Amino acid sequence: MFVQRIKFYRNIQYYVILSIVAAVAPALYGGQNNKKNETVGTMEYVLEDLEYPKNALEPYIDEETVRLHHDKHQAAYVAKLNDALKSQPSFSYSGPLDALLSDLDMVPEPIRTAVRNNGGGVWNHAFYWRSLSPSKSEPSPVFAKAIDKNFGNFENFKKLMLSSALNQFGSGYAWLCVTRDGALKICSTQNQDNPLMFDADSKMIPIFCIDVWEHSYYLKYRNLRADYLEALWNIVNWGRVSERYDYAVAKKRVMP
């Protein structure tokens, strides 16, 4: 009995030691960190989860399109952006992606195009998804007044926004932005560019965007981009867009 008790206490001591080692090992050896690469000092960007289930935007955007768009296309941009940043160990950056895209001259020339294309793909997609919602909402009174002031009325704004998206040749985005003097302006960009990348004289603050890359609508709408654009108005997150407008006017920068 005495020998068995000794063995029992020895086993307890053994497991306690193992537990201590397991707890301190990550601190001693660096562990895993999915957000920051301590070697190169750069942020490792992650694929943001959607704020709603992938079938929540139906019938306007189907679940399969959302799944492919988010889990495949957007995920590929995240991976390629991280690969580009890791390829330049001397480049240290750990700030928000929108600030990096606003000052691409800080990025080493060998990876500048890759960061522009893939970083734009990461940020634009996240911004687009957060512009949508399965829940109905309306523009705030302040934002609605700004729409009327800048475009005459909401219907005219809608026509201008749809025209910008429909007439964007090839892949790209249509954007609603706040200018430096607080006015609203519609513009479009090619590929994965966005208004944050414009030169200082024309730089604007985006508050809403429409993705017109074919992978955003082709499974459901085929080549009928106009049908996709018309359907999209049913799922715009006007509450979020109104908040972005208020933030842009007050802070003179894009809302995080």
- Strands in their spatial order, largest beta sheet: 4-3-5
The CATH top-level class label of one domain: Alpha Beta
Overall shape: globular
Which parts are unreliable, with pLDDT below 50 for 5 consecutive residues or more?
A: 1-40
| CATH topology (level 3) name of one domain | minor pseudopilin epsh fold
Word description of this protein:
- The longest helix has 28 residues, at 2-29.
- Strand 1 and strand 2 form a beta hairpin.
- 29% of the residues are buried.
- A three-stranded antiparallel beta sheet has the order 4-3-5, sandwiched between helices. A two-stranded antiparallel sheet has the order 1-2.
- It is built from nine helices and five strands; from the N terminus they run H-E-E-H-H-H-H-H-E-E-E-H-H-H.
- The chain has helices at 2-29, 63-86, 97-102, 109-130, 141-151, 154-166, 218-221, 225-232, 238-251, and strands spanning 36-37, 42-43, 172-178, 184-190, 205-211.
- The chain has a domain at 141-251: 3-Layer(bab) Sandwich (minor pseudopilin epsh fold), CATH 3.55.40.20.
- It is mainly alpha-helical.
List the helices and strands and how they pair.
Layout (H helix, E strand, L loop, with lengths): L1 H28 L6 E2 L4 E2 L19 H24 L10 H6 L6 H22 L10 H11 L2 H13 L5 E7 L5 E7 L14 E7 L6 H4 L3 H8 L5 H14 L5
Antiparallel strand pairs: 1-2, 3-4, 3-5
Helix pairs in contact: 2-4
Record keyword descriptors for this entry.
disordered N terminus; two-stranded antiparallel sheet; three-stranded antiparallel beta sheet; 256 residues; minor pseudopilin epsh fold; mainly alpha
